[in-house]
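TICKET: design request
STATUS: open
ATTACHED STRUCTURE:
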């Protein structure tokens, strides 16, 4: 069933992005993965093509593209199979830039948005700390206002793109004594290079090796008070609000990954012969493939409807977005397990994309709010 949410312009854009990914990304995926780092050059190339900040107004380097244009970009980016690039670009372009676009003072918008759009600046978000992740209100990094500066002390971890980010949207406690605790949280823009801000280890991960995940440290780090995003004490609400877009764009990269592993597995099962017959000819395997295709098609129908609603400005989608994030992330992992199984020993070999997908996809029920947290949110909307 064809889901017609994209218009002709979206499809033309898709062809342009796909050609770019074929030429500029796919041939380098193995090399970047080996080096465990992405070259800055690829960011600039995407900037030149107008893929970054497409949704920014023209004055900030974009073309006021709608949300569906971004979905098209993310779907094609996901098909490039460079998990690092997908994660780092998604976070910088679709998670952090919206904070700056919507909540930064005009001066900071002018400073950062055009550079983000040109691929000259990479942005990260630091919420998680060694002591807390899901419970955002329990963060301990503080920012004390002294004169016209904030003095920041604390530590962040698991920061996507943090190893080479030029600017970080940082969640801090401006009032550690506030009750309820979340009302003491604020967001501050911290540029690389300010005194007291240092980047720690580039963290070794199970997968997505080319994603520059890092620890960040702040020791009497001073930033101008004007780097506050939104209002003091209003950070938690902004984070919860922006989580909706973050979760939806996460889904927009996971769905194509599911489609790809299914395609690869179907092709393999048709070609690979066991006991004189294709793997796909055994009923048990056919059924596995059918089950995956069915679950995926149902998920896609729901998510595409959601993209369209979000694109139309529907803000009341917390339950549905949480459901999509939970369901698609878990589906991807169920599928990755079955696909590896159908590939047999080859599925366990690193040189096979299916093996990489297995470890890369494992992050999704954890990032941007775990499956358990999604279920907690859904439960609340059900009055439970
Ligand atoms: C690859 C990767 C990239 C990331 N990128 C970023 C980033 O760019 N910026 C950033 O700030 N963070 C980032 N994170 C951190 C991520 O958001 C957190 O790991 C996640 O929110 C979970 O927090 P935690 O790891 O502290 O786990 P915890 O919160 O300690 O949770 C541990 C377990 O307890 C469960 N749990 C927690 N609360 C409940 C509850 N109420 N009911 C039932 N179970 C519960 C969780 O679901 C989980 O299974 C990243 C993580 C990874 C793996």
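STATUS: resolved
RESOLUTION: sequence designed for all positions
ATTACHED SEQUENCE:
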């Amino acid at each position: 069933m064809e889901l017609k949410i994209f218009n002709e312009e979206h499809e033309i854009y898709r062809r342009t992005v796909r050609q770019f990914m074929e030429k500029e990304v796919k041939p380098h995926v193995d090399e970047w993965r080996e080096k465990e780092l992405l070259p800055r050059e690829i960011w600039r190339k995407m900037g030149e093509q107008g893929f970054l900040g497409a949704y920014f107004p023209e004055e900030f380097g974009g073309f006021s593209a709608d949300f569906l244009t971004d979905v098209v970009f993310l779907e094609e980016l996901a098909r490039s199979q460079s998990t690092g690039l997908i994660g780092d670009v998604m976070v910088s372009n679709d998670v952090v830039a919206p904070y700056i676009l919507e909540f930064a003072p005009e001066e900071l918008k002018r400073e950062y948005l055009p550079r983000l759009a040109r691929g000259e600046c990479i942005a990260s978000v630091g919420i998680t700390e060694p002591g807390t992740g899901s419970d955002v209100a329990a963060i301990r990094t503080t920012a004390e206002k002294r004169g016209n500066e904030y003095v920041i002390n604390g530590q962040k971890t698991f920061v996507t793109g943090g190893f080479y980010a030029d600017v970080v949207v940082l969640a801090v406690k401006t009032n550690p004594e506030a009750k309820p605790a979340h009302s003491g949280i604020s967001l501050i823009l911290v540029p690389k290079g300010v005194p007291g801000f240092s980047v720690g280890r580039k963290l070794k991960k199970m997968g997505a090796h080319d994603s520059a995940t890092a620890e960040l440290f702040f020791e009497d780090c001073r930033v101008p008070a004007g780097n506050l995003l939104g209002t003091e004490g209003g950070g938690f609400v902004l984070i919860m609000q922006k989580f909706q877009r973050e979760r939806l764009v996460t889904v927009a990269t996971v769905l194509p990954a599911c489609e790809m592993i299914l395609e690869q597995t179907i092709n393999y099962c048709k070609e690979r012969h066991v006991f004189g017959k294709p793997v796909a000819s055994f009923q048990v395997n056919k059924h596995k493939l059918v089950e995956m295709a069915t679950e995926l098609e149902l998920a896609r129908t729901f998510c595409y409807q959601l993209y369209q609603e979000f694109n139309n400005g529907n803000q009341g989608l917390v339950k549905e977005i949480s459901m999509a994030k939970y369901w698609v992330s878990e589906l991807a992992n169920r599928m990755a397990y079955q696909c590896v199984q159908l590939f047999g020993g080859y599925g366990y070999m690193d040189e096979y994309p299916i093996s990489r997908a297995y470890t890369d996809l494992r992050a999704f029920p954890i990032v941007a709010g775990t499956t358990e947290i999604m279920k907690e949110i859904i439960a609340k909307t059900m009055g439970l």
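CLOSING REMARK: The chain has eleven helices and ten strands. Residues 125-232 form a domain with the Butyryl-CoA Dehydrogenase, subunit A; domain 2 fold (CATH 2.40.110.10).
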